Amino acid sequence: MPRRSGCVAERGHETPEHERATQVLTLSRAVVAAEAASSKTDEPTVVVDVGDLLAITDYFVITSGRNDRQVRAIADEVEKRVKEDGGGSPLRVEGRDDLHWVLMDYGDFVVHVFSEEARAYYQLERLWGDAPRVEWLSGAAARRERSATRV
């Protein structure tokens, strides 16, 4: 199954080099979103490569906040940082009113910002357990993740 970011052939850019560059840019923007989310929470933030399993997107960024205020702060920071990186605004945002599950659709990647309860209930990481995880952690985020797993 072709990856979504490989759909550039529909726009007339069929070269493998262009397709690869688009995939790298998509992954880079998903990592920017993960870093932004991680900067606002101590909860684990994961990037799941769903591109070979779904035709609609390449990556899921999954994270959570402990309360409504933190969920909103995470979503705001993701939107700000992706835009600063040149990724523009999400194509669609759902869940900003109730803040249990904010879904930010950027096309080639989707950011899921859950409340703790919603993340435990929906268990997207388990649901997409067959999809590979992307190792993305920067220095500060890696230290936070390591200290969180020691507890």
Please, could you describe this protein's structure?
Helix content is 42%, strand content 19%. It has a single domain (4-150), classed as Beta Polymerase, domain 2 (2-Layer Sandwich). A six-stranded mixed β-sheet has the order 3-4-5-2-1-6. With 151 residues, the chain is an alpha+beta fold. The protein has helices spanning 16-38, 68-84, 116-122, 124-127, 139-150; strands spanning 46-49, 59-65, 92-94, 101-105, 109-115, 133-134.
Radius of gyration: 15 Å
CATH level 1 name: Alpha Beta
What proportion of the residues is helical, as a percent range? Answer: 40-55%
The percentage of residues in β strands lies in: 15-25%
CATH homologous superfamily heading: Beta Polymerase, domain 2
Strand arrangement within the widest β-sheet reads 3-4-5-2-1-6
CATH topology: Beta Polymerase, domain 2
Number of strands: 6
Order of helices and strands: HEEHEEEHHEH
- The name of the CATH architecture is 2-Layer Sandwich
Largest sheet: 6 strands, mixed
**Given the helix and strand composition, which structural class is it?**
alpha+beta
Kindly report how far apart the N and C termini lie.
40 Å
Number of domains: 1
Overall spatial form: globular
Low-pLDDT parts are 5-11
Task: Please give the structural blueprint.
Blueprint: H1 16-38, E1 46-49, E2 59-65, H2 68-84, E3 92-94, E4 101-105, E5 109-115, H3 116-122, H4 124-127, E6 133-134, H5 139-150
Parallel strand pairs: 2-5
Antiparallel strand pairs: 1-2, 1-6, 3-4, 4-5
Helix pairs in contact: 1-2
